[in-house]
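Forwarding these from the shared drive since the link keeps breaking.
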Amino acid sequence: MGSALVGAVLGAAVQEVLTTELRLAAAIAVVLCVTVIGLFAALLATLESRRQADIEVSESNQALLWTVRKEAVELGDRFQQASIAIAAEVRDLSKRFGLHVEQLLLEEVNAMDSLDDDKTAQLMLSAQQELFVLDLISEEGHWPDGAMQADHSKDFFETLVQKVRGAPPSFTYKRIVQVSDPLRSLRNAKTTGFIRHCHAMLDLRKRKGHRVTLRVARRRFPFKFMLMDRTKLVIQLQEYSDVDESLRIWGEILISDPSSELIKIFLNIWAELDDDQHTRTVRIGELPPLAQDDPA
């Protein structure tokens, strides 16, 4: 599943590269960085297959179990070798083009005890001039980040709101949420933390004016991303939940791009959605109400 989503991201990103004047090396950087995540996904799937084999194979089939384990280990070794080789290429590209690339998986985030350990959160909170978030919710109204621990997500949103409130007047915070029907806006949103933050954003807009915006756009891209000061980028990949087949966060790719060559691709995606005739600003009446014991 992770590899399929990586392919979807590559398709969207590379198509955008081909319509710009960016160097081919920037496209290669995208491919290499995202492929590292794909390899990790394949390795995790292999290990899960091994675990299932341990459960299902009876004692009379120990020979088969040994074979499955041996093949899983060998495949894992091959993936590890490939990951090392690709990581070396990424480091080489990072040196030549000034990119710094890291990855963060959902299971790592959910194991964190402090917001200080969350690399994505800290990267977003480090924004000094502007923060753009291309978000999405499913047709049923589920937010992919809802798979995170609720307390962790709440702590981050509260810290982000405090940052925006105390930021200089020139600081810009904009969020575009991809939805199946922009006319329906966010009325069918189901995730409490997401709804709470949307209310907080509209409250911030009263204080900050056009520097804070919350908009909805037609769903086009199977991923979300965060842009900070046009030099730092987080690409979030999703997977289908085992429970209800809704999208949930799978992992994130964190990229620092001081030259902004790679980030230009995602700025073009942002601008295209922001300027789309169907994209519209969210109003308070288009949000589900907050629970009485859940102030914005």
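-- next protein --
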Amino acid sequence: MRDCVEVDISGPVAQLEGLLARATLSPKDAARCARLAEALRRPARLCLLGPDPALLHWLLAGLIGEAPVAAGQMPPALEVSHGEAPRTVATLGDGSTLARPGLPQPDMLARAPVFLAVEAPVALLRRMSVLAVCLDVDPAQHVPALAWAARRSEIALWCTASFGPADARIWAAAPDRLHNHAVLVERAPAPTPPRLPAGAEFVARFAAGPAPDDGAAAPRALVAALQERLLADMDEARAADLDATRLFLHRLGSAVPAPAAAVAPRAAPAADAAPSAGMRALVSEPLLYLTRRARALAQALAWPDEGGDWAAEVLDGCCETAEGLRDRAADWPEDDPAATALRQAIEEMGDTALLLQIEGGAEAAETAAALMGQMRWELEQALARSPAPDLEPGVGR
């Protein structure tokens, strides 16, 4: 199997972050810059889709080594991503969430979560996260489920016993984003597979073989071939993102920070001076606010109403969040260079979010979400660089 070697993208990412921190880009360039930075920082996102939870569980376990839940406990949606220690966040049917350290436990699974987000220290997950979505028996639920999955993935694996007319109808109606790079995995390939419309074809097909006995692992040859193909595709996508970044940086020319100078986490224009101890108090609550707003928006979009305008909901949520951050930053001290630079970044991203809301559409929504992710990173970096408050005399000494 191809080694999980990570390409060093720290230089280009630092240059993109340096550009955003300078707050001198046009709104269109700032949006493009944020999108490129997010694409480089984030692992590739793989989605397993299909009507058979047992097959999805079998492939998930084969790809990452061990599934975080038993085969009979698969929720409608399960996402596994990299983390330094196991952690689980469960979304329940009423929209509430439970977060706990460790893998999913029986008491959490007994509450019938509709979505489990699990972090695990698995090496392959540094390269890709894996989302498994089991399609409901009710065809009316297919469209919103596929639309939701499309927003959380770049590579799709359609998993089925045999790709027949029913599969073809569901797949043909899937969003174009899922069709962009899709692989078919079936237990027994159909002798004459149904014809798919142009643009919905699979880039590769794999035969998984007959259903295994209970507890049997996926064949090593299948797992190795799938991993080889997926990692090769991810390498190509990463190379394309790097090429796009280099072209973008080349177009901006002298405005781009030098690589050596850009390696620092954030080189804001007025932040050459170290943040004051007071920055910790200024930034903590806005960071909590932004984190809560992002969580609330994710919950609202977890299972959207059929026919609902998810892009408009994202754009509205991002603009409301930007206004909330502006209100919080309005009273920050004018004589603190780091606070001034961060407030300027909030203002620029808020303006860009408003322009994206006017533009509308799926691409604008994705860019707005990426800008909010960039703003969260800015606040986290400001908090991390702020000196801890001095201990009172006699405390901890």
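The mean pLDDT is 80. Residues 165 and 194 are 6 Å apart (CA to CA).

- D.
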